[in-house]
Amino acid sequence: VGIFLRDQGRAMAHFYRGLDARFDGNRLTVSSRWFQGEVLHRAGALELRIDPHWVIAPWAQAYRKRIGQRLGQHFLAALGRPEITLPFRVFGIGFQRTGTRSLCDALQRLGIPTLHGAPWLLPAARRGDVSDPIFGDYGAFADNPFPLLYRELDRAFPGSRFILTVRDTESWLCSVRSHLQGPGKGFPMEEWIYGVPGFDEQRFRQRFESHEREVRAHFEGRSELLVVNLRDGHPWEQIAPFLGMEVPKEPFPRRNFAGDESMHVPWFVRLRALRPRPPKSRP
Fold first, then answer.
1. Of 45, 62, 80, which residue constitutes the final position of a domain?
2. Together in a domain, 192 and 234
3. Residue 52: inside a domain, yes or no?
4. Are residues 243 and 111 located together in one domain of the fold?
5. Is residue 229 included in any domain, yes or no?
């Protein structure tokens, strides 16, 4: 389903599963089973609003803030996205839980309009199709489904830069296991990437390690690939020169690095732990 953002005759669409949208005059209305009614952003007369709808469970509200922020980013970007000045595209092709969010934050701070994840591209990604107009709207891309499209992206966008974020296999397995646990496990995107409907340690390990080998082999002898572990050293000193930019003085944005394992306890477990318990009845 499309979320259409219009401003002075311009329109663009972003696709999210589970959302319905309509544009009426100056109001963008998003209806979802996950949210209760709330105005998220206003820009002049244009308003991004999430309509009241049924909520399937109390814990669903845990996603409200996070997804609302994502929608708001697209909303504001559509109204005034900075001009893309880089002569090439940048693609983060490391698997999820390798620091893709931190990489996107870093690229944004370098002034590159960056998209983190594009789940609506899954049908096209299955076909190896990278012709979506979204590739003209941003200068950098990371997270799913881009890691498995590096060959197609390399052919479609000659001269692009590719950043492979890596991490220790064991810590990655622990992180991704927690990330995929719970009622929503077995997402179509993960099944396409790893070839199994749910978390399978052996299959995930094999796919994670083979992806790095295949990427290195594809770019062997070429300068368009940077392999970086964002948890080690000073990533700015590798990323900025790789893109032909000066090293920023500000600290590198490390999202979700500290206490990585504890931070990825499934959200429904965290909420259940916080739920007040009824007092025990006295005998």
1. 80
2. yes
3. yes
4. yes
5. yes
What share of the chain in percent tops pLDDT 70? 58
In-domain check, residue 272: no
Residue ending a domain, choose from 24, 50, 80 = 80
Domain of 38 in residue numbering reads as 2-80
Select the more confidently predicted residue: 56 or 70: 70
> In the prediction, which pLDDT does 240 show?
97
Number of domains in the chain: 2
Taking 70 as the threshold, does the pLDDT of residue 8 lie above it? no
pTM of the model: 0.66
Q: Residue 172's domain is classified under what CATH number?
A: 3.40.50.300
- Residue 74, pLDDT > 90, answer no
pLDDT at residue 122 in the model = 86
User: Across-strand partners of 38?
Assistant: 50
**Cα 90 off chain centre by:** 15
Terminal CA-to-CA distance of the chain, rounded, Å?
56
User: Which pLDDT score, from 0 to 100, does residue 192 have?
Assistant: 87
Residue 78's pLDDT band, with cuts at 50, 70 and 90, is low
| Higher local confidence (pLDDT), 263 or 99 | 99
